[in-house]
Amino acid sequence: MNRRKQPLQTATHATQKKSRRVKISKTLAPPLMAHLGYQGARHLHPQRLPTKSAEKTVSVRLLDLGNETIENLQKIAETIKRLMVPGLRLKAIPENLMDRLVLLEKLDLSNNQLSDGSLPESMKRLEHLVELNLNTNKFTKVPPALKKLKSLSRLDLSENSIDNLNGLEKLRRIQILVVDNNKLTSVFKEVCHLKRLEILRCRNNSIKDIGVEIRQMKQLRDLDISNNKLSILPTDVLLLPGLETLNASRNKITKIPAFNIKLHNRHWVSEVDLSDNQITVFPGHLLRMTEKLDLSSNQIKILNMNAMKELERNPNQELVVDDNPLVFPPAEITGQNAILAFIQEARLNTPVYRGMKILVIGSHKSGKSSLIQSMVDNQGRLAEDLNESVAGIDLYDLIYDCEMKVKSEETGKMVKEVRPLQLCLWDFCGHPYYEFPHYLFFEQPSVALLTFNMKEFTPEKFNEMIGCWLDWMIAKTNSLKVVLVGTQCDKMSKEKIKEVKAEVKKQMTEFKNYHESILNERINDISQKSEISPTLTERMFSYRKLLIFTDTFTVQSDVIATSSAEFIGFEQLRKSIELIAKDENQFPPTPDYNLPLVLHKVKTFWVDVENYLDEKSNSMVVPIMPWDEYVEEVTTKFGMKKQIKDITQYLHVTGKVLWFSSAPVLSDYVFIRPAWLFELLRNIYRHDFEEKVDFGIDDTYKQMGFSQTRFERNKKELLQHGVMDKDFLRAILGYLIPPDMKENFNFLLDILLKGFKIGYPAAKKSKEMTYNFSPEIENIENVSKILIPWLRKTAEPEEIISLWEDRNDRERVAALLRFPKYIPPGLFELLCVGAQKTERHNLTFKAHWSNGILARHNKIDAILMISHESGPKGRGACLKYELRGDSPDPVYYPTRPAAMWTILLPLLQDFEEIIKSFKGVLVERQMLCKFCREPSFLGEWNTPKETQNLPEKVCEACGEKVDTDTLVQQREEKRDDVLLKLGEIRARRKDAMSKGMTLEQMLHEEELDKPIYGRERRRNVGILQAPDIAGLLPTPTIHVGSGDDSETADVDETTETNMENIRALYLLNFPGITNEGTVSDEETLEQTQEEENVGEEIIMTKK
């Protein structure tokens, strides 16, 4: 008890003595007080200065700034890390305050009266200062003294009168910046260089817009820009990769721009607060990326049913729409659960109408993205260059309320009805790099908006801006309905706009006339010939078919002038799209599929299938279903197996799924999330690959064991040689397919190689530092590298040029494919990938460069070159297939044209199969003369019969007689009659020469040996008697059979011709025969070459 009373007695005693101390204080200085914090302590404690404590002082809060206080502070300055001098009404900071504070990390000067110039120069000594608080002062600009604080990471300038943030550019380490309650009208331009900035608070200012500079602030995770004067919230803010919290409440925002959110790689934002604004259209797309979305106190009337599906999928999401004038759902429906229940019921009772797919194409930076965003937002939008240069294809959804006349089910009369026209917009990047990969998505009927910059248009630029795109589309399909859209008309006078429109219309007429003149000229040339061969007949038919094809290609020649900046012309564009949608003749039913017309009702269970696949795609790592699995799963759940193709085709033409029904291999798969496939191809074909793909940005490379050196090596290999390392591709696609899912990746790679034909397997030779273009690959898991022809830009190797020239005098067969007007981009690359199929063509690639390949046949002594050359003035192009003999002994064992045709014909058949998908391409097939090497002959491999009956043809260029064996593959009968007999002679010659038999004895031998072909024939033989040539060709008759069973038969004209061929071929294979009928020692034949060329030819033909 006493111990408890002792403190009271001490306190009383202290109080009694206090009066005496006060009297003493009249002659002594008052004690200097401060709040001190010692190392390891959690709180500050009041202490006198100077302190006598032996503990290390690390924190100080001063209660005054007298000279004596500063002097006492300097005595302990070397250990102080935190100094607080708030609320002292200071107008300036003494120069000597900062002396000796070498370890200071935090400085608080808030709630004073500091103004511009009040901070001393001595602050530059604070090299370790991390945090500075200058809030609630009288600064009008950023204090210049801050420029030297290179370690500063947290800065508070709130509650001042600052009107700009110039001066922060050297504070590279800033992570937290607070500038609330100032007079700022702009922020992001001044702080965009702060690469490490994570938290930015700038509420209660006068900021009117957010510039594109914010894109550079990739580390920003918390942004508070509430209570300003914003009218538009840019897409760039919401797409910041690190954003976690956004507060843009209490502004004047009227609409949130639409943008493409990649579901497979979306970044979730914890909270987006857009309350107390003037938003009228429900920004449902934000539900795809936000955990909590606050839209309270706006002007929203309708909640989109499709957008609300996101809330149904994710019950943890929160949507706040209080205090809005809602009509759908009605205002009396409150609470998130009640709203969702109402929308689900409404969805069941609301009919769905078929929508339409719109492809937006045009040159790079022609204004496509601005046009699309303005269409989607229904207000003027400008997309900056960085946004418009995105790679590949982006998807957007848009709904127009379309008024149309329909027949009433009740009265049978025509009445007006408003139906929603659902549009799926595909934004094609206009960079030339994508002309080949984008071709795949042009095979179905749709509308195409072809954009061009009206301000930059001149008559000379018509082909560059419009003509080349029309060629690009016509080459693939005539099912597109093209609308010409001019952009940037706000920068032109009305007279100039009319002038451009008239010029485009004139050039469009000339474009069509030129296209027709090319075809009509060729038709007339054929018509004037006295005799028209089957080949010419087929060619004329193809020309007329092309004329009909181009006539049905619809282009709206009246240009729609638009301005995304001023939102001009969009009503006219909308009407044009609605007219196309209402016209039942634009997309008529096809015999292959029974689909509803645009703006007509879709069957309910078709919609159920669409919703089911939409849900399923979000749960699949690789949203690709093999066709059989797809059919099984959908029909098991919904039935109607007979309609599965119609349903899938409907989903395809409306852009909900991708099913390439007419493409080999790809038709076996359904891609149930198109955006995922677009993103996949974007990472393989990317024009800005060198700039965008960086080791430091993506951790996937490190997770897969890549070092910086290996990364750079693989990246260089792709950029310089067009060779993609398999692991490098896995890392690039790591955010689409996790690296540990090898089976999924191999499944996808198989589709890429066999279906999309992006390339073929290759392997690197470590010693020579070159590539093996035909490695032996057992399965897809053994692939190490992939050569992508579209990306390969290397020059033809010198050794290949030399090798090819060395065989310049050999036997040859050459086919030429001329494209007088336009060659589809990527055609040569597709042919190269197809030629590499060993099981079909039996070729070993020796070289592959930007516009050619060279390959050797694995059984026949021949080399093949496929080359691609542009036409004169960049118009048109040529593809050439040329085979040359590659026999080690071309004198005695030349490779015959018949054998070369067994190589060439399957390659040409591949070409014919591929060109079928390019229905609007004009191609002329020709064969080269073996003497002058001019394309003097028709390419008749599709209709060879007429030429097969001729022994030779005369070249119109050089006048030489050319053996038809070099122009067409000989027919079956001739090859059996001539080449097979030659094969028999060669096969039996070995035995005859060894026995010294004459040819007559050989032909009439009792037992005829079966011809033998192949490498086993390569042997040296001794000297023998020359066969009797006269016995080969008995003039009026021929012996049939052998031995006693032989008989004499009359020789018809055909047999006589064939026997003449045998005589010539025989002489070639028995050189050096002397007049005495013997072969000299010096002329002994060395059989060193494969003789499979003829034998394989016969065997393959018979099969």
UniProtKB/TrEMBL annotation:
- Keyword Nucleotide-binding assigned to the entry: answer is yes
SMART domains tied to this protein: LRR_BAC, LRR_TYP
- EC top class named in words: transferase
Residues annotated as domain Roc: 349-584
Instruction: Identify a single GO molecular function assigned to this protein.
Output: ATP binding
Q: Name one Pfam family in it.
A: COR-A
Under what name is this protein listed? non-specific serine/threonine protein kinase
Q: From start to end residue, where is composition biased (Acidic residues)?
A: 1081-1095
EC numbers for this chain: 2.7.11.1
The protein's annotated catalytic reaction(s) are:
L-seryl-[protein] + ATP = O-phospho-L-seryl-[protein] + ADP + H(+); L-threonyl-[protein] + ATP = O-phospho-L-threonyl-[protein] + ADP + H(+)
User: What SUPFAM superfamilies does the database record attribute to this sequence?
Assistant: L domain-like, P-loop containing nucleoside triphosphate hydrolases
Instruction: Supply the alphabetized keyword list.
Output: ATP-binding, Kinase, Leucine-rich repeat, Nucleotide-binding, Repeat, Serine/threonine-protein kinase, Transferase
**Segment Disordered: which positions?**
1-21, 1081-1103
Write down the PROSITE patterns for this protein, in alphabetical order: LRR (PS51450), ROC (PS51424)
| GO terms for cellular component | cytoplasm
Which GO BP terms sit in this record? regulation of signal transduction
